[in-house]
From TrEMBL:
It is found in: Cytoplasm; Nucleus. Keywords: ATP-binding, Cytoplasm, Kinase, Nucleotide-binding, Nucleus, Transferase. SUPFAM superfamilies: P-loop containing nucleoside triphosphate hydrolases. One of its GO terms (molecular function) is kinase activity. Belongs to the GLYK kinase family. InterPro entries: P-loop_NTPase. Transmembrane segments: none annotated. The keyword Acyltransferase does not apply. This is ATP-dependent kinase.
Length: 286
């Protein structure tokens, strides 16, 4: 019988979060949640935070949540990026690796790993409805207290493995627009899911058909327009998703099969078009 993402996630988190804190460590635990656009990662990321806060908050644990989307470049900086890469259609608008403020992301991650004397941290917020759906960073972020014991971060390409481009490597040489994207993916990988300083659990939403993204993302935009009064048209959404497909084609199958998002353990959930779970796999790394 199909189950839900949060039901499966709770069982997974109950085991591995408890084992993590049972070690007596003071280091933060990251929970990476990765899934294609519209698969429910933002919704379920919020539910994961709420669940962990309810369970571990009374124990004195502080749980925070963010989306990789919150770290997009400002609208102005995105326009600068597009001018720097005028021939690269993958950088024409937010979305792909390379369209985020890496300095800001580095600062936030460092503050979580090494809170020092700070008592709070501002997590940026991004408003996707601004500029007719092109989006822009909100003027004010969300302030969270430090230290953070569990940090939940969701994103559509978290866990993707960038390809090496050396002649002696077994990987295929990357060319065209994807060469720029692949080069920038190393920065995210080194900072987050391949960072030896970060101990993490991974939750992966693996869809049975990557083309589901077109349906899911259109549904999302309709909700955005209803809520905010503006957003992308259906045709614009289709063009928007088109820009992501080269990334999915290059990395997605390998990523979902690797079961390696979390450095401690990874839960991989097969998710159908209606976002119900039809398959579950757990792999313990550490």
């Amino acid at each position: 019988m199909p189950t839900t993402v949060i039901e499966e996630s709770r069982t997974f988190l109950d085991k591995y979060v408890e084992e993590w804190f049972a070690t007596g460590t003071k280091k933060p635990l990251f929970v990476f949640l990765s899934g294609p656009q519209g698969s429910g990662k933002s919704y379920n990321g919020t539910l994961v935070q709420e669940y962990l806060s309810k369970k571990w908050g009374p124990e004195g644990k502080n749980v925070a949540f963010a989306s990789i989307d919150d770290f997009y470049l400002t609208h102005e900086d995105q326009e600068v990026l597009e001018m720097q890469f005028p021939g690269n259609k993958l950088f024409k608008g937010r979305g792909l690796p390379g369209t985020h403020d890496m300095a800001l992301l580095n600062k936030v991650i460092k503050s979580i790993l090494e809170p020092r004397e700070a008592t709070s941290l501002e997590i940026p917020q991004y408003d996707k409805s601004k500029f007719s759906g092109a989006g822009d960073r909100s003027a004010q972020g969300v302030e969270v207290k430090l230290p953070i014991d569990i940090f939940v971060l969701e994103g559509w390409f978290l866990g993707f493995r960038p390809r090496m481009q050396r002649a002696e490597s077994n990987d295929t040489i990357i060319g065209g627009d994807m060469a720029d994207v692949n080069a920038r993916l190393f920065g995210y990988s080194d900072l987050l899911w391949r960072n030896p300083e970060i101990h993490s659990l991974g939750i992966v939403l693996a869809c049975d058909d990557i083309n589901n993204v077109y349906t899911w993302r259109t549904e999302q935009e309709h909700a955005t327009i209803k809520r905010n009064g503006s957003g992308m048209s259906d045709a614009d959404v289709h063009k928007f998703v088109d820009r992501y497909m080269p990334c999915y084609e290059m990395y997605y199958d390998e990523f979902t099969q690797s079961e390696s998002l979390g450095s401690v353990a990874t839960l991989t959930l097969g998710v159908s078009l209606d976002r119900s779970v039809f398959a579950t796999k757990t792999k313990c790394i550490e």
